[in-house]
Amino acid sequence: MSAPPLSLYVHVPWCVRKCPYCDFNSHPLGPQGLPEARYLQALLEDLAEEAGEASGRALVSVFFGGGTPSLLAPATVARVLEAAGRDPGLAPGAEVTLEANPGTVDAGRLRELRAAGVDRLSLGAQSFDERLLRRIGRIHSAREAAAAVEAARSAGFENVGLDLMYGLPGQTVAGALADVQAALALEPEHLSHYQLTVEAGTAFHRHPPPLPDEEVVAEMESACRARLAEGGLARYEVSAFARPGRQCRHNLNYWTFGDYLALGPGAHGKLTRGAGGRVLRRARHARPGDYLSAGPGGRWAEVRELAAQDLVLEFFLNVLRLTEGVPQALFAERTGLPPETATGALAEARTRGLMTAEPGRLRATEAGLRFLNDLCALFLPAGAGPHPVVPREQTA
Amino acid sequence: MDHIRNFSIIAHIDHGKSTLADRLIETCGGLSQREMAEQVLDSMDLERERGITIKAQSVTLSYKARDGRVYELNIIDTPGHVDFSYEVSRSLAACEGALLVVDAAQGVEAQSVANCYTAIEQGLEVVPVLNKIDLPSAEPARVIQEIEEIIGIEAQNALRVSAKTGEGVPDLLEALLVRIPPPAGNPDGPLKALIVDSWFDNYLGVVSLIRVVDGRVTAGQRVRVMATGFSGEVGKLGIFTPKPRDRTVLETGEVGFLVAGIKDIHGAPVGDTITDDRRPAQTPLPGFKAVKPQVFAGLFPVDSADYEPFREALGKLRLNDSALQYEPENSQALGFGFRCGFLGLLHMDIVQERLEREYDLDLITSAPTVVYEVVTTGGETLRVENPADLPAANRMAEIREPIVQANMLMPPEHLGNVINLCIEKRGVQRSLQYLGRQVSLVYELPLSEVVLDFFDRLKSLSRGYASLDYHFVRFQAADLVKLDILVNGERVDALSIIVHRDQAYARGRDLCERMQEIIPRQMYEVAIQAAIGSHIVARQSVKALRKNVTAKCYGGDVTRKRKLLEKQKAGKRRMKQFGKIEIPQEAFLAVLQVGKKT
User: Fold this and answer.
1) Contacts of A372 in chain B (CB under 8 A)
2) Shortest alpha-carbon distance between residue B84 and chain A (Å)
3) Is residue A383 over pLDDT 90?
4) Cβ A374–B557 below 8 Å, yes or no?
5) What CA–CA distance (Å, rounded) separates B500 from B502?
6) Per CATH, the architecture of A321-385 is what?
């Protein structure tokens, strides 16, 4: 088992304000603004620590996610990239993405980011309908999103992705198609098109908005996908579309069960350690306060080694999101487990028509992609769930 | 022996039996105030939660009477629900007397009448006790009259107590010494001890609650179980006070527990006789008459790997619940399981819950049914315990269903409602009598209707005042048909029911609607049909889900996604895969809820 490709994820947990649908680790900025100096210092300390885990691997991608990473001063981004470039180093042609809120960028800032080494911009447009943008609490207008794409082009970004949501409050099929059309007009290399889901702990969960019904959403989905395909954006993951060769390499590394280092509050990492192929899942303290006040080496909230059965589940949880799936051989390569480990679940998945029977490939069928949760559940370890089976003798 | 009194307490649910037992224990100092958990005799969790007594329990109390002598009182607890009348006769077999506890405000209920007759038939001295006399609504004089008119025993000297406040309890203790006779038996004869109850302890093996009828049993003695032939040395002997307390000997007339190193769960069945291995008794004690289960259902492990543990668990349960019967069953829909016979629906519920709680099993129960008699065209008479086994219509000359006599007691204002219910349930009136301030109503009803929802409906339309006791009288021919449920065109054997032809269409429609509500939307559309033979009488469908996928996955963090999957899986614990379709447990029980839409 050779060590998988290595990426770097940097989490920026602040936003101008929290969107009512968002359940990510993001926090509205206080009146003092970003504690940028302390944050940068912590990132650099984390990075120095993480570089030791690279085992000679250079980074194939770096991703500044959030939150709103575009709130950072470009100089901060530059410092992190410089440090990462020294150790563990960036692989030739490494992809460096930064997520940006269209309301927080201007041409000057974008040029500085580009100069700092960011070569891919992921813009959270979400919709091009002004009324809907307000309804979902966005701080930017449709015009600003379009302007941000233009600014990015003029700043030298050749790789721009847009995030778009559908199934928004009161949205119609025509409305969702209009959003897709507006996005296509900006000629992005990549588009994430995901359905609004109401998650626990969000403002929308406490005060649910009137969402379009399931049939309407299904129609939106198929109409939008057809339009995206016509526009040259091919679907390669449940919610991701790209022009040829422009799939997000950082996300692909997640979906092909690669490794990633984690910097910043609430960042999650995955690491394959040693020849024995132990796989560690690690998570940083999520609350910015906890994270910043902990010293170097003390910012981990959780480090645990995955058991064989967890490896199986997590591998399939990721690779089956890809429309093309992955080569069969990747299973043994990434998990270090014998290829026959998941035979039972695979047979069941194929019997139920959720996975294709292509030899040498692990791939969900069209039905499998639509019912991905049911498909993945087949790979859950037996007895998983809140009621572990304990022999009577031990409980007496 | 004349210092021993063995007695049971007969009472309707809620009439305060357990509270009275607690008060007796407390008065005799069996437990300190601090140790008194509420209602100590109901020891199974399930009994506590449901507030009812299922299994017999015993307690030995030491009572210093006003005459200065110390008496040994053995209270053998009895269950109060109609399903468990069999258990009552078992407990009574260990006693010389019974306290008939009647709520002084509510009056006599049908269950107490039935149990009281059982006690009288078994030759017990019945001592009437009016409980809850502290209530402002108590009417002791009226209730005494009711006991005399409805049950027909002398009740002028009924004792008046409040188990809640303790009022009258000391006088009750004195009175029972006088009224209940001490045990008779031959202390010098060979040992004969009746097994009143047996249960399986993981460390000790079989533990038996025994009543010594003749002779004595001592620790270390070699004993034999007469019917099964199992023998062993008495390793542990004692009484419940209610805490278990070791004894070296149990004398004639005493009640206590015995462990004789029997590890086989069938080694010491309830009703059997324990005797001395070297000087055995010539004949065993009469034991108990075997009860016939009234209601049958298939029980199937959700996970087929649980089949063997399930078989073992049933064996252990059966040890102290001889009313539970089971034999292997193979269902096309539910796989390998057991066809189980129960005394009634509550019994079924309790068995399932005990299996799940005490043995960590996940079970699916098929639609419960009564036993039918079928006369084939060849003149053969078959007993059908499973609708799936019903011969084809053209092979049946006659189907007969079990008829019960239902004895009901209620205040007159509910009579009209109850009669309407009985008519709806195809009942035939046998008698109607005004007794005191209650009406006694006797109907003959098909057992299948009683099993369905009769008891619940009776209770709700009489605002809880009507009470019921019933017993089997005969099999009787009726125009019955088998109603099948088809899921996506395939018959689900575990959902078939036998119904009266006049009700078949309505039941079919109702069942399909109910299934449609219960079966969750899934990957495929689910078509539900009800059919008599090849004739479809009703249909419904459950629309397919469009998708079940998490749109956005925060790539780095799989823990949340994983939790979601685990939650979904836990929610499916009680689902049974049927072809491509998943059917939840509730669907198999939907037949019971007909006409009771919520």
Assistant:
1) 548-550
2) 27
3) no
4) no
5) 5
6) Orthogonal Bundle (1.10)
